């Protein structure tokens, strides 16, 4: 199965590197292109057998599965210009949430899938979110599910929960990285610990927490119960969090959904559906 990547920015590069290092595909099966070809050649420097194509048309022609890894408003012009190349035997995979699978299907004959990856996939971990089009052939559903199984735990989602699922899986690492950095900064400012040591301890704590949850030793609530000894120090810290956080996460989801609605309106104007 030959893979084409249109766009090798942050997420495109992360996805390509994950597929290659997870041995989901061999380098010789991958073709890439980017508006700035130098970015595409960086991937070839690491994996010499990867083919850098001069443009989008060449990438589509050389590939069975074409991943479009560009900004939401850049997808329509690509599909509009190259629709005839996305033939019925090919599979188109978009990785952006504001463009729906029905919108993709309105422009091309290829089997269409939306796959929302996470930066955690770069470590061959975490979740990827998959939505299959109504016209998507079963062979491509199986192929793409299997492909993402090499780098993640693929989860099927319906359109209605696309944004919140993406907030948790794709945006979540950035949100919790921010909270962790604030946690570290406060520790450094309020105590005698230095930033390097606080960062190491916090990182190892997060890795350990992940392992506890992954292995099913505790749920989040039971973990808190185990650590929070009655009248102890952890409980005092939890009280501060309860008072300080308030509705911050409610506001977070409200903000991401408001931005998502703006993006949806713009793509609807482009696609007409």
Automatic annotation (TrEMBL):
GO-annotated biological processes: L-proline biosynthetic process
Enzyme Commission number(s): 1.5.1.2
Boundaries of every Pyrroline-5-carboxylate reductase dimerisation domain copy: 162-261
Keywords annotated in UniProt: Amino-acid biosynthesis, Cytoplasm, NADP, Oxidoreductase, Proline biosynthesis
GO cellular component: cytoplasm
Record's catalysed reaction(s): L-proline + NADP(+) = (S)-1-pyrroline-5-carboxylate + NADPH + 2 H(+); L-proline + NAD(+) = (S)-1-pyrroline-5-carboxylate + NADH + 2 H(+)
Domain Pyrroline-5-carboxylate reductase catalytic N-terminal positions: 2-97
Record protein name field: Pyrroline-5-carboxylate reductase
GO molecular function: pyrroline-5-carboxylate reductase activity
NCBIfam families with a match to the protein in the record: PRK07680.1
SUPFAM superfamilies documented for this protein: 6-phosphogluconate dehydrogenase C-terminal domain-like, NAD(P)-binding Rossmann-fold domains
InterPro entries: 6-PGluconate_DH-like_C_sf (IPR008927), NAD(P)-bd_dom_sf (IPR036291), P5C_Rdtase_cat_N (IPR028939), P5CR-like_CS (IPR053790), P5CR_dimer (IPR029036), Pyrroline-COOH_reductase (IPR000304)
Main location group: cytoplasm
Entry keyword Oxidoreductase: yes
Pathway(s) the chain acts in: Amino-acid biosynthesis; L-proline biosynthesis; L-proline from L-glutamate 5-semialdehyde: step 1/1
Function according to Swiss-Prot or TrEMBL: Catalyzes the reduction of 1-pyrroline-5-carboxylate (PCA) to L-proline.
